[in-house]
Amino acid sequence: MATASLTPVSDLSKDEILRYSRHLIMPEVGMDGQLKLKNAKVLCIGAGGLGSPLLLYLAAAGVGRLGIVDFDVVDFTNLQRQVIHGTADVGRSKLESARATIREINPNVEVVGHDARLTSENALELFRDFDIIVDGTDNFPTRYLVNDACVLLGKPNVYGSIFRFEGQASIFYARQGPCYRCLYPEPPPPGLVPSCAEGGVLGVLPGIVGCLQAMETIKLIIGQGQTLIGRLLVFDALGMKFRELKLRKNPDCPVCGAHPTITGLIDYEQFCGIRGEEHTPVMTGVPEIGPREVKKMIDEKQPFVLIDVREPHEFQICRIPGSTLIPLGEIPKRMHELDSASEIVVHCRSGQRSARAVEFLMKAGFQKIHNLKGGILAWSDQVDPSVPKY
Amino acid sequence: MAVKIMIPTPLRQYVGKKDQVEVEAKTVAEALSRLASEYTELRRHLYNQEGKLRSFVNVYLGDEDIRFLQREQTPLNENDVISIVPSIAGGTPAPQYERLRANRKWQQHL
Q1: How far does chain B reach from its first CA to its final CA, in angstroms?
Q2: How many Å apart are CA A44 and CA A69, to the nearest integer?
Q3: How far off is chain A from B62, nearest CA to CA, in Å?
Q4: End of a domain among A246, A271, A296?
Q5: Which of B58, B91, B104 shows the shortest C-beta gap to A138?
Q6: Model confidence, pTM
Q7: ipTM of this complex > 0.85?
Q8: Are strands A344-347 and A305-308 parallel, antiparallel or unpaired?
Q9: Whole domain around residue A313: which residue ranges?
């Protein structure tokens, strides 16, 4: 155990004894456990949906040093789940916002902030000073990076992951069990997970999973109970079911196996199939039209059809008056509803999906067709600010 | 053998929102193949173009990973429970990743 060698540097003050009294009277924690917490150094990657509850509880529990890696800024869409940040923090760095909240909860906690993106260049250096790393990230490249860095340094990685109503938690600690690559040797190629239109997350879910990570972190520190090393907890929030699956160490694991082929950090975006595609132009030669021009066409009563290719639940959030909803996935089977002789303008939220629709329809023979540049977001900015953005 | 296949929430949209599907099968391979024939939209999420089970979709029989049993040839007993456990990364995808997902998704529609 990474923290087992630590010896308490100081006793608890009278104020601390009062603050942690509900821990101190539990034999499983007691003075020894509370001092272990005080001497523990935990690094949280990301102060977002998972990191919020994690940091709040670890701070309240009296973890002595909390490291945070986050380069992001708080925005309004974060507030539905990232409960360490408040409305007044919008526009502020997540790091500063989290630091202020932690100070309010427990001024005894030392916060070490890294206002940077976690990369293969800085990960080993950042992780070195901490006992436990908690993965609160939201993408595959960073998850593989966190895993490999933890394996290389011999540190436990407290894992939590969510998607819509699905949650997963485990501890990947290669010295005692399997690592993330033993579970998932490869990431899914971008695209095989549902698109942005179907994304989203119920705010409570990262709260639950982040709290599971906090619990496992504390158990690692105080050395009590059975941790999730070697087990994957799978949570179905819709059915409200927790299930447990066995994780086994893969003897051929490229990073923690007997003969590792990964002995240093690699390019994780490339590994996850992201870089390279980035430079491939996805919309070549799709004719575009600006929101103001479309407004002019409406005002001048020019005949044209406005097609909205978003999903029905997005259509309920906001719409451009006069538009017809045909979700992107239904375009191929419903294109007969469109008249190729009419002027057609296609839009979505930001212009990406509609560009695909225009490209497809052009190949199908539609010529008088344009993509609304910037989608309904640009419409809200340039034509009608009363249209809400999401 | 009648066995149950537990469907994770991200894939339920392809199986009529069910959380489990019952099939008759003698092996894990047969059970998954029956599932994919019944719900054709699910197929591309489970198998790659060569018809092999995707490496980021883990399959469990009970609480054991089939990679540590006899993989897809693992025999089934009556009332066995198979779980599909896909790799998930997080809540809000990074914008760049989201865009790629949207594009790929579209390509798959065609």
Answers
A1: 37
A2: 6
A3: 8
A4: A271
A5: B91
A6: 0.83
A7: no
A8: parallel
A9: 288-382
